[in-house]
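Minutes, project huddle
Topic: does the predicted pose make sense with pyridoxal-5'-phosphate bound?
PN asked that the exact inputs be recorded in the minutes so nobody has to dig through chat later. Recorded below.
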Amino acid sequence: MSEQIFVTHSSMPPYEEYCNEIKSIWETVQLTNGGPIHNRFKDAVREYLKVQHLELFVNGHLALYCALKALKLSGEIITTPFTFASTTNAIVQAGCTPVFCDVKPDYTIDEEKIEALITEKTTAILGVHVYGNICNVEKIDAIAKKHGLRAIYDAAHAFGVQYKGRGIADFGDVSMLSFHATKVFHTIEGGCVCFHDEALKKELTLQRNFGVDGETLQIFGTNAKMNEFQAAMGICNLRHIDDELALRAAVFKRYSENLQSAKGIKILKDQENVKRNFAYYPILVDPESFGVTRDDLIQKLQKNGIYARKYFYPLTSENKAFPNGLAEKTPVAKQDSERVLCLPMYAHLKLSDVDRICRILLQK
Ligand SMILES: *Cc1c(COP(=O)(O)O)cnc(C)c1O
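Predicted holo structure (tokens), as shared on screen:
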């Protein structure tokens, strides 16, 4: 039997390179709390992402949570149920109520359906750039402006994505990125918040550090600081990001060549004016025309040592804490969650393995 293939596989910098990067920590003995490596990485990643302001966090989830708290949001936030649990959890943990909006065929929030969901309690719109597919940021930013709402993006999947030559995290009031080990770019665990309003820097810093400001306890904050070892991993991985993206592009292309004419399988389409990051390779399986259900396909791949994942099943609106039947209000998202399958996708996946995965997948 061939080697097992998982849905993701973290890229590692050369061992010596990482050791070299962390060496100085044995001299400074500053392990965390905004050390010199943290600050160097912050500048480097801000430049790469082409954003105005950026603050680092211990992970993406707490970055998003702190961003919502820093914006002092309350009431309702219009968002998508077709995402990782983190997005919805952050909204609820920040004391707000998620209001679920359906998605478009590209899996992102349907901007045409947002305005109908706005009430006097609405304070923000939180879109997710799912699989690196971007939301209609121009339209969403305009709706937010028109109704006096905040535009927030979960850009956890969108590291390096550009729209019309602009860093995608530069859109909206605030964007969060995740640097988790399974993402296109990682700091082991990690994340950041990108923003425009300079006053948010102080709020984010308070949220991230227990609400402590010198000798004053300003608010009830959490602990979400990125440490020096994480930042060192980030500095190393940022040196190799162009290679990472090029390798991913080749894997992505190979999948598309194999699958583009398969009946009953829908693959990702290019988006206009978007520079992709090849973060994921989702397919949508139509059980009627393909002849096999998504769940049977998972089993078949698994028997061959290939572990594809149901991102995103269930919808985040299907949390047991919410009333039953909530997911029926977003029928497109609901159907996608029953049909979607993310195939193994990482920089060092062999093209011969991509061919083998597709062969097994298409074998009737
Ligand atoms: C990974 C992910 C997060 C959370 O990021 P962590 O860094 O793992 O905390 C949030 N939203 C989405 C859509 C994600 O995929």
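Observations noted during the meeting:
- The first strand starts at residue 53 and ends at 57.
- Residues 241-259 form the longest helix (19 residues).
No decisions taken; revisit at the next huddle.
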